[in-house]
Amino acid sequence: AQSVAQPEDQVNVAEGNPLTVKCTYSVSGNPYLFWYVQYPNRGLQFLLKYITGDNLVKGSYGFEAEFNKSQTSFHLKKPSALVSDSALYFCAVRGLFMNNNAGNMLTFGGGTRLMVKP
Amino acid sequence: DSGVTQTPKHLITATGQRVTLRCSPRSGDLSVYWYQQSLDQGLQFLIQYYNGEERAKGNILERFSAQQFPDLHSELNLSSLELGDSALYFCASSVESGGALGDTGELFFGEGSRLTVL
User: Fold this and answer.
1) What is the pLDDT of residue B109?
2) Which of A98, B3, B16, B30 lies 20 to 30 Å (CA to CA) from residue A78?
3) Among A32, A46, A108, whose Cβ lies nearest the Cβ of B108?
4) How confident is the model at residue B102 (pLDDT cuts 50, 70, 90)?
5) Phi, psi of B13, rounded to the nearest 5 degrees
6) Distant-in-sequence, close-in-space partners of A105: CB < 8 Å, separation ≥ 6
7) Ordered alpha helix ranges (H), A1-118
8) Among A103, A73, A106, A105, CA closest to A7
9) β-strand B64-68 against A10-14: which pairing, if any?
């Protein structure tokens, strides 16, 4: 079974400071890792994904994430936070299934609320 | 705009009733996923359909059922509703190759249907 942990329910950061939202995962085989953002009363929006290759992945809105296989982590980062980045962030994992009947759904972490203060 | 359309956006009903939530995937996407988002359970995968057939099942109650029609839209039926069924129900779609290998696509989410059971 695959699982994702986001150890922080909330992260507070001042505008202009760097931010990190943590994520660790557990999956059989090579993971496909994703970050999504959810603004109030909206659906989830895709930010970035790691499939293979360079461990540092760049995504939308200046976000990036670093894949660390030995630590089974995929932390989301941004060099300079904006107030408009305040939202709920979800990390997700998708395992590489060898069985076509296994499905390809994403398993999500519990979410981390990012609060960026002016 | 993700291209995934969900109706209705809001629904208020009473315990014991039955409702149907509808989802139209992005043009060309063959797979549809249903997720439930509640405050205490986070994002829970319910069920996946691929090209009209059930592909994977998650934490879906027996009172709930889903189907995907030939035009690829999907419906999630919730019956004998209980107070605890109050949640946001998201539909997502992806291209899906039909096989697990090489399928790295992210999911595209609709805006969700907010169900309130009184």
Assistant:
1) 94
2) B3
3) A46
4) very low
5) -145, 180
6) A94, B33, B45, B48, B56, B58
7) none
8) A73
9) unpaired
